[in-house]
Each structure stands twice: as structure tokens, then as C-alpha cells.
Amino acid sequence: MRLTAIALSLAALAFAGTASAQTTKLVTEEMMVPSTDAGIELYVRNKRPADMTTFRPERTIVFVHGATYPAHTAFDLPLGGMSWMDYIASRGYDVYLLDIRGYGKSTRPKEMDEEATKNPPIARGDTAVKDIGSVVDFVLKRRNIQRTNLLGWSWGTTLMATYASQNQAKVERLALFAPAWIRTTPSLVQAGAGPTPAYRTVRKDQALDRWMTGVPEDKKADLIPAGWFDQWATATWATDPKGGGTTLRAPNGVVQDGLEFTGAGKAYFDPSKITAPTLLILAEWDRDTPPYMAQTLFPLLTNSPGKRLVMLAEGTHTIIMEKNRLKLFEAVQAFFDEAGRS
Predict the structure, then answer these.
(1) What total of structural domains would you count in the chain?
(2) What pLDDT does 23 receive?
């Protein structure tokens, strides 16, 4: 595969860990990885300890985002001086994130330059899973390993679970943060009446309302530390060159998949074909992927050894950027660290 290096940086990062403070020097690389389709390249970011010279499946992680926002503005957003990607990499991991086509810094399909109603939904799940496959194969070849850990958030859990069910030999462990499954409540991501257009446009002022859905009134004021929402929103809306910082185009493939599968009572993937140890983790106030989804999915993972379901208190679908985010980080880290102790 062809790799285009965009940036290489070396930074000293100080973290307060769960037990003690540590300082780890991390290397950051950004690259564009070709997809299976000509002209479509996928943005990939890698972080790892500067002194890492040996690469192992159990110490490698690939992360993918959800339905609306790109990976790098959430997974690697330095809130309070630390991102989740920093947190994992500083603990001895080779960590990757990717933006699916149409999101973030990846190539936007030509349909996104036309009126949304002129084309059918883009970046359907099957296409997104192929994008993940392109990046996983790139990572495996780059590090000369046979498997990697997978971490998905929201729609990304459907994509990563689908990939894991179809590529069992390439998956070490599977962590699904805010797992999606068959829906019995209305989706918070809507495209409007009529045929689903190629993409939807999301306003910055709509994001906070969606974020706070399901949070008790007396808990809203201090859920997100001061400045964190604005930091995330500014970084995220800046990724769309046509949005002027106030609107963001998001592919509607996920919306159409929801109409045809999860919203219609049909499973998108077969949980019994997942053979890797699997973690389902979410927060109690999640209304995008409510707890009943994980609770229904969990017993269907009949061939996942060591599977577990973790519910976190006082958090939403976006607990990754809330005051209790370290509870998420610690639980996912403990799951991945198990492999290194065996």
C-alpha cells in the first residue's frame, strides 16, 4: 500500500495516571492510506511511545468514529492537556485512528460537492467496513503482525463488530464503546422525510442539545468541564472546508442502514461470528445507543470468550469528553491490558 507521510512530531506529554503520574514521550504520525476505490484516501493518525521498537498484536489498537463526527477531533482531542489516544499510547500501545471516507480529513466523495438530494446515501456500512479493512491491512503490514485490537464508538461499534465477524483471524480483542444494536426507540440522527439524501448538514448549535438528551436537569451544568464543548466543536466543524465553521456535512449511509436494518428490527451483523474477547461499555444516560441495546447484544456474543458488559454512571453517549471520562479510559484500558498479562 502507498503511504503519504504528512507530519511527524515528537512531544513530551505529562499525564496523571490512575495510580501515579508519568511522563511519556510520544511520536505522532499522520498519513493517507488508499482505499479499495480509486481516488479515495483515508486519513490515519498514529501515536506510540518514542522508544517503542517491538510491535505486537495485543499492544496495537485501531479506532473508528461514529455516525456524524470524525475520529481525530474526539479520540485525539487534548482536553485538559490529554486525549484518549494519548492515554492509551502512553501506556505502551501503538494506536491508530481513521476517518471513514466523507468524514474529517479523509477524501470526500464527489457526491458531497453536489446537492444532497441529487444522489443516494453515501458511505454505507459495507463501504465503511471496507475502509476499515484497508486501514487494518495497512497497519498489519506496516508492523508485520497478524492481528490487532479494534475500538469503535457508536456507529463505529457496528462497523468494527461487522469487520470482526468477517475477519476473525485479524482481530485480537474488540472494544465497543456505546454499542449500537436493533433499535426500539427513535434515533437522534434523522435525515428528514422522503428519500434519504447523500448527506446531511449538521449545525454546531444543534450538537449540544443532542449531547444533553437524557441528562437530568440538575446534572447538566457540570457534566462537561468548562471550555471542553467549545474546544471540541471548534475543532470538529473546522474539518468541513465548506461549512464556514458553523455547519458540517455528514454522509447519510448510516441513516439509510438504520432504516433498512436496526430501525427495521434486522441485525446488521451476526454476533455469534465474533470470536475475539469483546467488551461492551456505555454510560447510563446514553440516548443515542441506549442501554437496552448493549443488554440485548451481550448474550448474543455466544462465541466471544471473556466477554463483559460495563455500565458507567453519570455519563452520556459522549462520556469520552465529560468529567467522568477517566472511568471510560480506565475500564477500556484494563480490558486491553489483560492480553499483555496472559
Answers:
(1) 1
(2) 80
